[in-house]
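Kindly draft a polypeptide, keeping tokens residue-aligned:

***
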Amino acid sequence: MTQTTDSVDQPSREGFSSLGLSPTMLEVVSDLGYEEPTPVQAEAMPAVLQGRDLLAAAQTGTGKTAAFLLPVADHLGHAPRHGGPLMLVITPTRELAQQIEDVAVAVAARTHHHCVTVVGGASYEPQKAALARGCDILVATPGRLVDLIDQGVCHLGSVEVLVIDEADRMLDMGFLPSVRKIVAQVPRERQTLLLSATLDDSAIAGISDLVHDPVRVEIARKGTVAETIDQFALPVSLEAKNALLAKVLVSEGPHRVIVFTRTKHRADACCRRLRREGISCAPIHGNRSQNQREHALSDFRDGKIDVLVATDVLARGIDIVGVSYVVNFDVPADPEDYIHRIGRTGRAGEMGWALTFVTVDDVADLYAIERLMGKVVPAYQPKTELDLGAELPSLDPDRSAEARPRGSVKKGSHKHGGKGRQHSAAATEPTGAPKPTPKTPAKPRETSHQPSKAAGNKDRGKARRPKRQSSPRNDRRGQDEDLPPQKPFSGPRKYKRHPGDRGGQ
């Protein structure tokens, strides 16, 4: 039997008590602050409780971790001293492993399960010692787990439940050989839960054979963007791009923003420039140690820094509450990475928005993203006049998400005797399908923050820029340092959307 769910409507108000969880696990639900199950939780939990294998796909930020961890822990036994693990969770990055461990700790406070986490970038000895003492639940990144297996200090012969989290990402990062080696150590008689952003055969074909007669739960199709996220594009010249980031952050408010870049070097360089402008920030990428990354995330959550500059190591699965907005300083080459990047904001029903810098080198990548989403990204309207440079990309105003338009370069001199070229809505505002509103261009969402006025450009168009709070976020791109062996909060801000302000959806 296969179950498929395509709707993202909330389940019935019966809540978690209707899903078959025990009273103890309902206490865990209360401890975690959950009120109503998300769609993926409502669909997956009963199947997991029944002992069925599972193939589940859902957007990031929809509660996939709890969807598998709570029902498994509800019936999971306890390993003997120096034994275990009974449950193994494999996840591609350290940050995801930490997130899963956080939920597992909350569960263990009620169930008394012992959880151990092993990830790359951390000392081997404490992890070896923890494994020697035994555990019920093991959370691991593939590279480090293979190392520990090879050293003879990790034995998986008692695993009853195998969870492969972010399976598509795992394969993208080259972990297939490691995953296969790990699975070979796990008993064939087991329950297997495979979770992914997408269930497309092209994404998970390498490991889809690991599940047997699975229940299939598919909440979101490939390329789906949460309705809580507005999106905008800002055409900019290559020479002006570096200086522009700080100006945009200052204009919009640099609180709780994630900035994404393609490379580790650019992430570090962006941080240096932002610090010179007085913006508190920290980089997260594959060259940062585990302690450095955890410290940066902690400081960001606690409000000690305003901006995270990251490579794509942070784009998937990390749940940070209250990210105001995301800035794509670099357009990702993979359209799916764009979906995951902007998914760091607008989580758990909160409103958020995303801004993407687009140079002449990025036009084709932007169009590919639009085709994946089936929607055009409208123009961003800045609060103040910005120097965008002399050589701007010309985004086809009549483009649609279904047809690939030709991108061209619009050249021209700076206006007003050396002042920066003002952004023109007419240059980028989409007018073809699937334009948000053909008669009245859509306005970006407004927030409870003081409304802003676009300065100095009366012909800036009708797609006004969003009036948002001063809490931006930025997402970044890069590789996790736990590479495959074969390859060397002050509380979330609330956004208010005015009727009809659907720009960028």
In short: The longest strand covers residues 229-235. The chain has 15 helices and 17 strands.
